[in-house]
Specification:
Heme Oxygenase, Chain A; 310 residues; mainly alpha; single chain
């Protein structure tokens, strides 16, 4: 969820027909900061309507056949293995796209924001921004229980090998009798998985800032749309009928943090719109290109599981 609006912001939004605008943008308008105007804000809300209609209704966000099937938990041991192998390739190759996004950032703040994600992915535990402990995710029983801080910053955080997201996925792979050398490498990826990963590098990690921002917006909204919860539901059903339980920390953690990422991405979009000129049609087209790549990944998995039935 985005930052909660203050009473003054709510009144300002209502009085100026700006309902839907985020807290930071409303405050900037109230304070009459440079580049922020009521007219520009109304243009943004119109743009947001176009995004909602022409980008965020992409079928991979709302009608993913594979994750809908997976959520029922009826998959076999072999199908679970096939899924984890392909997801491990995506998880590892995502690091390349995230590093490119970091390198290609056009501001120091943007670079640091990308480093937050990259450093956390490879094992830096988030440190709480305030004086209290960072919020943890999980049931406290997994080996990762003390490393699952879902909020905060990597600034001043501690690196742990066991906190690397790939290692959490590797523990699930091990429970499925897969070894380190059977997961995570490019040569383990299917054609569909590699297409998705290459599109991440091309679009999400693009040298063109607007392309990268559009792809990032699309990816984060896809990731926050519920597929993590569908996967968790499926694994819980699977665990209920097998003796060798699968550790779910990788998936429960991402389900928690992705909603926060999407909220931050929305704030970044508003800031971008007020500070720069955006080719709105191109932004939506780039976002759809990214979601098309995501869709190919899931279609590949769906095709694979249907082949298993033949």
């Amino acid at each position: 969820m985005g930052q909660q609006l203050s009473g003054a912001q709510l009144r300002f939004a209502r009085d100026n027909q700006l309902t839907g605008l985020g807290s930071a943008s409303l405050q900037a308008l109230i304070e009459q900061r440079p580049a922020y105007s009521i007219d520009r804000a109304m243009h943004f809300l119109n743009f947001q309507q176009c995004i909602d209609r022409d980008l965020l209704k992409h079928p991979v966000i709302g009608a993913n056949a594979y994750t809908a099937w997976f959520a029922k938990g009826g998959f076999s041991h072999q199908q679970a293995r096939e899924f984890v192998v392909q997801f491990s390739v995506f998880s590892n190759l995502f690091l390349i796209a995230q590093l490119q996004k970091t390198i290609n950032a056009d501001t120091l703040e943007g670079m640091r924001a990308s480093k937050e994600i990259l450093a956390n992915e490879i094992g830096v535990v988030f440190k709480a921004l305030g004086s209290g402990p960072a919020a943890l995710v999980g049931d406290g029983q997994s080996p990762e229980a003390g490393l699952l801080a879902a909020e905060g910053t990597v600034e001043g955080g501690t690196f742990h090998f066991r906190a690397a997201h790939f290692e959490w996925l590797l523990r699930m792979a091990s429970a499925l009798d897969l070894t380190f050398n059977q997961v995570g490498k490019r040569h383990h990826g299917s054609e569909a998985t590699l297409f998705f990963c290459d599109e991440l590098a091309r679009l999400y990690g693009s040298e063109d800032y607007m392309t990268s921002q559009a792809a990032s917006y699309a990816v984060e909204n896809w990731a926050a749309a519920g597929f993590w919860e569908q996967l968790i539901s499926g694994f819980k059903v699977y665990n209920s009928r097998v003796s060798k339980k699968l550790p779910l920390a990788f998936f429960t953690y991402h389900a928690k943090i992705e909603a926060q990422h999407a909220a931050h991405t929305q704030e970044e979009l508003e800031e971008l719109y007020f500070s720069r000129d955006i080719d709105e049609a191109r932004f939506i087209n780039c976002g759809n290109d990214m979601l098309n790549g995501v869709e190919v990944f899931w279609q590949g998995l769906d095709g694979q599981r249907k082949t298993d039935l033949q």
